[in-house]
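Handout, tutorial session.
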Amino acid sequence: MPNLTPHFTLEELTRSDVALRKGIPNAPNAAQIANLERLAETLLEPLRWALGVPLKVNSGYRCPDLNAAVGGATNSAHMDGRAADLVPVDMPLLEAFKEIVRSGLPFDQLIIECGAWLHVAVAREGEQPRQEALTASGGPGHWKYERWVG
């Protein structure tokens, strides 16, 4: 599959172990692919350079069936191809989170979820990014979000 940017491919932003196990086809349409490309160009690639480490993508695009299977929010930006869950390689998660908040990059949402991964999202096309930094605890269906005041 083609690279969306020098370090991110469409394959890694659509791959899902849950989808493979459950036989859920997770194929984005042209608009969702365009959003994934914008996500990679606007946030993922610049974040990789800003943090100075590779980023392991755990989840990118999710079709509605896959989103439901993983307990995602019903309005999840993942379903539009506007979000990715990732882990910076060899960098403490909280350090990466704080650096992203300070970076000035145009994220719509940045969430440190359960101290295990970062959720990053771009705004919808034509909308201003909210620059919303949150922490999340709990689990699927029971997430508790708090605004970061760090």
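The second record follows below. Compare its token runs with those of the first.
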Amino acid sequence: MMTKINLDRNIPASVAAATELCAATLHRPGAVALVPTETVYGLVCRWDDRTAVERIYQLKDRSESKPLALFVATPEQLATLGIALPENARKLA
């Protein structure tokens, strides 16, 4: 199902509505969302939803040998995901 949000003159409210809709969508099992970035559109899903991750690989016709990006709010969040960040990378983050 596709939902469109019409931007109005209240850009902050429109962005908040789009963010809320995207977050709600991604809580559904297997959900994938299309979001704009500064240069292209990206496909996003919950990192822990294997079905959704597989859908992104299928939609992009991408080899599973090529990993997808994982975005986190803080470097500390990586530890909760079982990911150890090298010291130099942690300092850069």
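Points raised in discussion: Residues 57 and 65 are 10 Å apart (CA to CA).
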